[in-house]
Write a structure and sequence with these properties.
290 residues; TIM Barrel; elongated; binds 3-methyl-2-oxobutanoic acid; 40% helix; 8 strands; 13% strand; eight-stranded parallel barrel; single chain; alpha/beta; 2 domains
């Protein structure tokens, strides 16, 4: 698959059991550009936004307006990447009408290609309604942070809860979701859930057997946030690098090392002279270094 061709929901379904799908959660234009340049196929404008970018303690306060705003930036940065917008807390639970209106905003105003809904059997009918209206829906089962009350532990660790997660996966797939995020379950259960559905699973802390993987981009980059997920693999340690750059900048400004001539605009000497004589009172020694 040419990484520069935007995948459709149908293309993503066709990847079941094929080459692994790659997705990252991201929230802004520059990171979206770099994700697209790296050939990652999906970007999730996750409600992790709340904890990673907006400084909330949980995803609960995130609004549809905030996801729309960040989604627009991501779409501008990654126009050839399949962008999924998270439906925030309680923005799809009240009625089909509420869900359709909010999903419609994320697609029309945010520019997303699809929406993601957290939940299993309890929201299957709602997913069907959105899909009937032509809105591609990604499911999200296992750990569902919107409903977790701030405790983000591993799910499905006993037979009953593992069976419930498999039933959730099947219900969401049968309702018409084109892919399902499976979060924070034992690897064995990630594999079982993947085998149980005809659409791709995209795992996050769900083992290697899912049809794809996702991470939160700031976790992968090593930028500490309120979210930081301990299971995330860090591919870089940018937090200390960024802090060191900021510290060096402060030192340079305070010591007068920055800005130097190479970071400043010079005025032609004759203009500078004419300016000085027009001002009269300004010393001919003063101003500029060019
Ligand atoms: O909000 C988010 O970033 C997510 C991922 C953790 C899957 O839902």
């Amino acid at each position: 698959m040419d990484a520069r061709t935007k995948l459709t929901a149908r293309d993503i379904v066709a990847r079941k059991g094929g080459p692994k799908l790659t997705m990252l959660a991201a929230y802004d234009y520059p990171i979206a550009r770099l994700i697209e340049a790296a050939g990652i196929e999906l970007i999730l404008v996750g409600d992790s936004l709340g904890m990673v970018v907006l400084g909330y303690d949980t995803p609960v306060p995130v609004t549809v307006d905030e996801v729309v705003y960040h989604c627009r930036a991501v779409v501008r940065g990654a126009p050839r990447t399949h962008v999924v917008a998270d439906m925030p807390y309680l923005c799809f639970h009240l009625s089909d009408e509420q869900a359709l209106a909010n999903a419609g905003r994320l697609i029309q105003e945010g520019g997303a290609d699809a929406v993601k809904l957290e939940g299993g059997r309890g929201i299957a009918a709602r997913i069907s309604r959105l899909v009937e209206a032509g809105i591609p829906v990604m499911g999200h089962i296992g750990l569902t942070p919107q409903l977790a009350g701030g405790s983000f532990g591993v799910q499905g660790q006993d037979v009953a809860s593992a069976l419930a997660i498999v039933a959730d996966a099947q219900a969401v797939a049968e309702a018409g979701a084109y892919a399902i995020v499976v979060e924070a379950v034992p690897s064995e259960l990630g594999w079982i859930a993947t085998e149980a559905v005809h659409v791709p699973t995209i795992g996050i802390a769900a083992g290697p057997d899912c049809d794809g993987q996702t991470l939160v981009s700031t976790d992968l980059l090593g930028i500490e946030s309120k979210l930081f997920l301990s299971f995330a693999k860090r591919y870089a340690e940018l937090g200390p690098v960024i802090e060191a750059a900021f510290t060096a900048y402060v030192e340079d400004v305070r010591s007068g090392t920055f800005p130097g001539p190479e970071h400043s605009f010079a005025m032609p000497e004759e203009t500078a002279q004419a300016l000085r004589s027009a001002l009269g009172s300004v010393s001919s020694e003063g101003g500029g270094d060019g």
